[in-house]
Amino acid sequence: MPRHRNRHINDVLAVLTTTLWATAALVTSAGGAGTTKPGQQGMGPVTQCAMSEHTCTNGKCVPLNKFCDNINDCGDSSDEPRFCTPCNRTYYGNLGLTYDLELHRPKEDRIPYICVLTFTAAGGKHGDIVQ
């Protein structure tokens, strides 16, 4: 592997080891309509969870940042599926709230690892700005 590429991978590893917490606060201005996401069909009771929430198999709604956080927030473990990751997801929030999101360093045999996090302000009660 070329020396400059190896250095780049080491730089990425340094970022992964030091960046353990990411937070997003959603702030809004006037305008926009709130949106809800229908419950997942065929996975237990149908629930109207907000787009900022994960729909548990039992119908409970938990904030998206509680998905795959190693804590059984749903009560039925449906927010902690095997081999889940908080990466490669789109996160929505609610107006005026701050969310913690924990990212763990991947195992050595999984490096290099790309983790894409998308924070979206969907308007209305979901805010217009991600800060």
Describe the structure.
By secondary structure, the chain is of the alpha+beta class. It is built from 1 helix and 9 strands, in the order αβββββββββ. The chain has one domain. A hairpin with a 5-residue loop joins strand 4 and strand 5. Mean pLDDT is 71; it is low at 4-44.
Helix/strand layout:
Blueprint (H helix, E strand, L loop, with lengths): L2 H16 L2 E7 L8 E3 L9 E3 L2 E3 L5 E3 L25 E4 L5 E5 L14 E4 L8 E2 L1
Parallel strand pairs: 6-8
Antiparallel strand pairs: 1-7, 1-9, 2-3, 4-5
Provide a short characterization of the protein structure:
With 131 residues, this protein is of the alpha+beta class. It has one helix at residues 3-18; strands spanning 21-27, 36-38, 48-50, 53-55, 61-63, 89-92, 98-102, 117-120, 129-130. The radius of gyration is 17 Å and the shape is flat.
Biggest sheet: strand arrangement: 7-1-9
How much strand content do the residues show? 25-35%
What is the element string, with H for helices and E for strands? HEEEEEEEEE
Mean pLDDT: 71
Shape: flat
Measured between the Cα atoms of the first and last residue, the distance is 38 Å
Total of helices: 1
Total individual domains = 1
Strand segment tally: 9
Helix proportion range? 10-25%
